[in-house]
Amino acid sequence: MNFQLEIWRQDVREEPGHFETHHVEGIDPEASFLEMLDMLNEGLIAKGGRTVAFDSDCREGICGTCALTINGMPHGPNQVTTCQTYMRDFEDGSTIFVEPFRSNSFPVVRDLAVDRSALDRIIEAGGYVSVTTGPQPNPNAMPISPETQHRAMDASICIQCGACVAACPNGAAMLFTGAKLTHLNILPQGQPERAERTRNMVLQMDEEGFGGCTNYGECSRVCPQDISIDVIGMLYREYRSAVRKKPNPHQKKMVAQ
Amino acid sequence: MATQEAQRRRRTWIGEAWDSNVGKKVIVAVTGIALVGYVVLHMLGNLTTLLGPGDGSPQINAYGEWLRDFGAPLLPHAMVIWVVRIILLVALIVHIVGVFQLTQRNRAARPAGYPAKRIGRSWAARTMRLTGPLLLLFIIFHILHFTVLAIDVTPLREGEIYENLYGAFQKWYFVLLYLAAIASLGYHLRHGVWSLFQTLGLDRPARNPYLRHGATALSVVVCLGFAVIPLAFFTGALPEPVSGPSAHVATEVAR
Amino acid sequence: MNLDARIPEGPIETKWRAWLDAHRLVGPANRPKHTVIVVGTGLAGASCAASLGAQGFKVRSFCYQDSPRRAHSIAAQGGINAAKDFANEGDATRRLFVDTIKGGDFRSREANVWRLAELSANIIDQAVAQGVPFAREYGGQLATRSFGGVLVQRTFYARGQTGQQLLVGAYSALQQQVNQGNVVVHNRHEMLDVVLVDGEARGIIARNLVTGEIERHAADAVVIASGGYSNAFYLSTNAMGSNVTAAWKATKRGALFANPCFTQIHPTCIPQSGEYQSKLTLMSESLRNDGRVWVPRKPQDERRPAEIPEEERYYFLEERYPAFGNLVPRDIASRAAKIVCDDGLGVGGTGRGVYLDFRDPIREQGRDAILGKYQNLFEMYQRITGDDPFETPMMIYPAPHYTMGGLWVDYELQTTIPGLFAIGEANFSDHGANRLGASALMQALADGYFIAPHTVMHRLASSPRGVADESHPAFEAAEAEVRGQIERLMAIQGTRAPQAIHRELGKIMLDKCGMLRTRESLTEAIDEIRAIRESFWTDLRVDGNTDELNPSLEYAWRLADFIDLAEVMCEDALRREESCGGHFRGEHETEDGEALRDDENFAKVTAWQFDEDAGHDGRFTPHDEHLIFNEVMLATRSYK
Ligand SMILES: Cc1cc2nc3c(=O)[nH]c(=O)nc-3n(C[C@H](O)[C@H](O)[C@H](O)COP(=O)(O)OP(=O)(O)OC[C@H]3O[C@@H](n4cnc5c(N)ncnc54)[C@H](O)[C@@H]3O)c2cc1C
Ligand code: HEM
Ligand code: HEM
Ligand code: SF4
Ligand code: F3S
Ligand code: FES
User: Fold this and answer.
1) From C288, C330, C335, C533, the catalytic residue
2) Which atom of ligand 1 is nearest to the CA of C439?
3) What is the ipTM of this complex?
4) Which of A61, A202, B36, C253 is the most buried (most CB within 10 A)?
């Protein structure tokens, strides 16, 4: 198969980028999109050109590193990660636009690679259960119904790829944060910190400059893990009650009449 | 070390909510409820117009008066309606300011000239920022028109609601204008009503189809409910008003 | 060199307790004054950094990915073992210990393996407390299943995402410590050297992969948790970035690299489909619980699998190993598949594939039951290959997957360089010549949560703190060396992309140092690897600049280390004149083609010393650690 590629080139975060045209020929339809780019790069090296920088690691759809916007769609035409997108999904001879994930909270590092550490900082703000290493209670002493476990799992399968942010017309990180929050807030382990976690993660989301949600639902449509906007509803709901809980370490003493 | 900072930054919960994107959206949704509530009641109230001109004291006039007299004699004349008006005005202002600020932040979160393909977002959702301002313009116009009675292209008389409506809706341009406003409202509500349930965290996978279809149904009903009046006047389905005693007297009779 | 593993005295059951009772502590008030560097944020690294941070030490954590949570532990699907006996089979520490020693074909250290088995139960408790959503039974109790080569159900799992979920747990613990101010994470940083002061590890040199800056980081101890080296084979189930660089730099500085030839080729991977392919995808071994492995009896059988009648199907695992059938350990299953393909019975476009068929289990248990167990695996298979496993059998073929070898460490997980520790897949200690399924996660977490935090503390308490800061001449020298190497790579300006050279290296390694090795193939391989090294240093081309994100440059230095490592892998395989576990030498097999161990001469670990400046033949020097088996009788493994 042959393709014309319009690839985003940008040397550093501060400088403006532009599209550059490349042609690739003789691509096997079974090659993945990233393997196609590998071939392009190998050719560029042989010709003395400058290779296109992009991120990938596991190449099996699980680590969340790969992050290309292909023809305007984060991760590409199918609802899977970029690395699981195959050339058989494209029309032979077509022109393909390749860009980085776009969001002001994801500055471009170089070409197609972006900096998504804002998502790490959201986790840092509260995406954990505060336990330290050491003896823990017998896990079977805390039964969890398979339904709850499934719901937690449906949220915790998020691979932190950031496609939801790139897809959202508002650049909101609601699906990601909602997924992380749902996972911990519905499990018994997460209860003690439930309200604080919620508030802190929401505060951090704003701090990072992510937009707000207007319930467009596009995030869920690109999410390679198919996370439902149910988690966004959960986030709203949790926030609504969390924000009213005043952290009050000095409760007043009660007296009898 | 975000946690401690968050603790320190906290003042009142409402302030914290208003400052955050998520909280602000929740507040927009709550004000949305007030606005939707008003619109639905207003629509139902308007439907009394369909009872016709009566014997010179149309039901709609009585309804208008009843609103003003609500709570009498415990409360002074027109107090309740003023309270409601103030609540609505505040809700509208908060709604609009909230939406405006959210929009600003959302634009800032997004690089200029974002090329992405849009997928699956409904037309109604996409046009919220168009239908909203249209509604605002309409509301201003509409209040000037029927409440303040300042748009006197057609004769307007205080208290004579039926007569005023009849006069206005004989003109095709008023009918068109109102229908356009109603269409905007319909679209605004189609996304807005479902959206407010989601924003308040009340949607669930099991309820989702009902809520979404319910929101659509509500918008259709509201649209039809409003639209039937200008149409009925314009097509002549509703007769000319009978000039009779003033609305005030009519209310007395009704009681 | 004397390789003393420093195993505590006393009965095996109490060795670790005895060590803990005697180890030295740093007082809580003094802990913030000590700095520890942890290289790697996989299960081993993240759990170790988080635990040290929680103890109160200042930790600097490094990973080359853009987020610590993307380390390759994320990819583990199947599960994690723990001797908890939730399935009421009488499982206990000893049984897990024995299984692991036997599974490793008697090439691992008893004391370490016992401790691993002993700590396994705590891992589950720890993970559950963090919120890891392991599968549950209807009563709300944890579910377990059996996995790869054992007869008890001791494997805990979270859908097909056990590694991801465990890592999210460890990563969130890490982020909590970042929030507390105890840990600083340096993402997109690659360790390029370890700095020794008076022969002890006192810091590292790392490159900021975004700005290209070469940074010095001083510390009181360094922990390497950089994962395995399967990518020496080019195509493997490891991530694109998985590399041996951190461990290899330590080797260059004098640490020993143990058992490099012990690599595991995993039986259930999706076969390669073409030259362009950049990696292989693993299908969880749990598929072998139900799926039946077969090939047509007739070579080059062109029929569709469904058309081949029962009697013309060769269920080679079930026939050869009736007791374990499709559940034999990985090394055995892999080699069996290779043999049938070598005999021309292989299927698929390349003839390098065997069927993994769910026809019978679907018929017996129903479609829904199978879907319930394997849905995400079936979907993944279909996404990659375009074939629906409900319609046609899956095709699988072995692929390089795990490396049992690694930095030599003693009982305290310390390398021969004082203050330099190695944990997780990066060390060699617990799996011998073959790793059983679901035990790598267990080892990475036992090392990271429960062992290294104590042994590192012991080291910190026993050695002076703040010996050298970043301005020490040793840092200056190390930095200059790293800069020199990078400039050398940039200066070659040949014509070949690193990926092209790597592909060539991988082919040699797979063909000649893979599932089947012979004296001849290994000797050839060594010559060919030397030729590749030559070509690398003369014909490589790295584009771009040194002060920016430069994936070609990263690739190049990782490949340089793989080339060195590949040679010692072959040397090690050549020296080990026996077959054991994943190491199968054609010269050493029983009459019916099984591995023939030589316990007399090779019940030992070979740890290699590397001298870069020596000539071709003096670069690698072997040292032996003899293994003593007191608890398990040395016996031939039999899965028949
Ligand atoms: C596909 C697959 C499936 C598996 N399934 C299972 C299973 O079901 N059960 C099981 O028990 N085991 C399984 N394993 C094995 C297991 O996942 C690994 O052995 C284990 O996760 C290794 O963990 P680790 O922490 O040692 O290393 P890794 O998770 O590989 O982490 C390595 C870390 O080191 C960092 N790093 C590497 N080099 C450098 C450098 N030079 N500078 C800075 N940082 C560096 C990386 O950034 C990364 O953070 C599987 C492995 C694979 C590949
Ligand atoms: C009759 C008057 C109005 C009613 C009944 C109404 C109702 C609603 C409702 C229910 C929502 C959804 C709330 C949510 O999910 O958060 C909403 C959102 C919105 N409204 Fe209105 N609204 C009215 C007037 C306006 C006006 C005058 C404007 C603009 C100036 C406006 C702009 C918007 C916008 C842009 C949104 C989308 C906000 C978001 O989803 O984040 N609305 N409205
Ligand atoms: C065809 C449809 C409509 C008709 C016939 C109609 C009629 C009227 C009339 C007669 C009044 C004056 C009542 C009085 O003074 O007692 C009024 C007031 C008002 N209407 Fe409407 N209306 C229509 C549609 C709408 C819509 C779509 C909206 C909002 C989006 C709206 C919002 C209002 C408001 C805010 C007032 C002022 C209420 C007050 O005085 O407190 N109307 N309407
Ligand atoms: S919610 Fe989905 S799209 Fe967003 S980061 Fe997680 S996996 Fe990616
Ligand atoms: S697309 Fe954006 S607007 Fe909300 S529902 Fe998803 S975050
Ligand atoms: S590279 Fe890991 S998800 Fe794509």
Assistant:
1) C330
2) 11
3) 0.94
4) A202
